[in-house]
Amino acid sequence: MNRVVIDGAHIVPVSEAEIPHGHLILEEGRITHIGAGPAPSLPQARRIDGRGCVATPGLVNSHNHLYQWATQGLFADNTLFEWLVGSYEMWHRLDAEVVADTTVAGLAHLARSGCTTASDHHYIYPAGRGDIVAAEVDAARRVGLRLDLARGSMDRGHSAGGLPPDSVVESLDGALAATEDAIDTHHDPAFDSMTRVSVAPCSPFSVSADLMRGSAELARSKGVRLHTHLAETIDEEEKCTREFGCSPVEYAEKLGWLGTDVWFAHGVHLSDHAVQRIADTGTGIAHCPTSNARLGAGICRVTELLDAGAPVGLGVDGPASSELTQLSAEMRQSILMARARLGPTALNARQALHMATLGGAQCLGRAHELGSLEVGKLADVALWRIDGFGYDVIDDPVVALTFGPPPPLELVLVGGSPVVERGELRTVSIGTAAHAGRAAHHRLTQEVSC
Ligand SMILES: Nc1nc2[nH]c(O)nc2c(=O)[nH]1
């Protein structure tokens, strides 16, 4: 029997009232009991002393590009379009080995910031460079996080009016066939699934309308989710208006891309009408505050989206547009950016934690299994130590978790199994992960100057 008991922690279920001194019982990968006071004594249990800690659901990262671990720090003062045009020149060299290495490095880093489920939007598939999807799935298994592999695609190169060079795009039919193959081979719909696949054409300026429509058709025929970048920058909005005569959200709606099975990355530039359409259709938004600030894209209208009832998750975005961001730190960043725009009541600590957990699970279509501490849900838990120097004078544990620097992690469990213990990764060594990230960096950036 795999049984873990966490005793004496401040428990923040997210979906229900907090328990100041409570216990959690996790058995065979699920949460079986949550209660106040000390835990009952149980045989064959690993007992964790949770005093001085806050227990939350494991964090859910709703948008990332793990391969960008290899190209961090480049084009650091550029707009999204400039940054992309420069980066494509390196990304077109990636292969399955680079993807395996960056997946290990990126997921190891996420695990060490309390993340237990990560979506990865991978949209670069150079021909003849190995099985990139299989390499990523295998690397994620080694790190031990749940993966939502958003199988991206681009078919609109420069010659068709798109932003990327023709050398990095796939054909329409090739992209759809490969995406279908990724679903058939790797998508596991089980409750305790470690790997889900979503259909994720990249963005309106790199994907044809036919690929957007074909992707929606494919995803709905397979019962998987849809993801893309949308409304990230003013440049995108202007290009969309010029080419399609409408805003990005109107364009998405025309293509059948609003609904409870869709989530967009960013959603920064939204009219009141667009906010309402997103909320009314149950479309999710992956809010990536650090990346939006790093690229100077703008500030997402997260307060209005939440008020309207839209599902909103948090995402670190690719490490090349938000260098080494920790998912836990995105909670703080989201609060600060919302308040810089609308004042001190724009977003609070518990709303930020909700986005980082249940909001992310809603975006990924996994709110039945993940994102809150509830009996019957998966035993994905983060236990944060908040009694040390720098945290011990903040009385509210959720304020300590979200306003200050991310607290040290006592434990991160995925399905009841430890991935991080006392800050140390347990599944792969941090030295191995760092080495893998550096190797990928050298392979992609050699002979390129910027
Ligand atoms: N932040 C990002 N935005 C994007 N748009 C697009 O087409 N690709 C990207 C990306 O990698 N990051």
TrEMBL record:
Per the UniProt entry, the Enzyme Commission number(s) are: 3.5.4.32
Its keywords, alphabetically, are: Hydrolase
Q: Which residues form a coiled coil?
A: none
Task: Cite a single GO MF annotation.
Answer: 8-oxoguanine deaminase activity
Pinpoint the Amidohydrolase-related domain residues.
55-384
- PANTHER family, sorted: AMIDOHYDROLASE-RELATED DOMAIN-CONTAINING PROTEIN, AMINOHYDROLASE SSNA-RELATED
- What NCBIfam families does this protein's entry cite? PRK08203.1 (NF006055)
Question: What is the name attached to this protein's record?
Answer: 8-oxoguanine deaminase
UniProt source species: Lipingzhangella rawalii
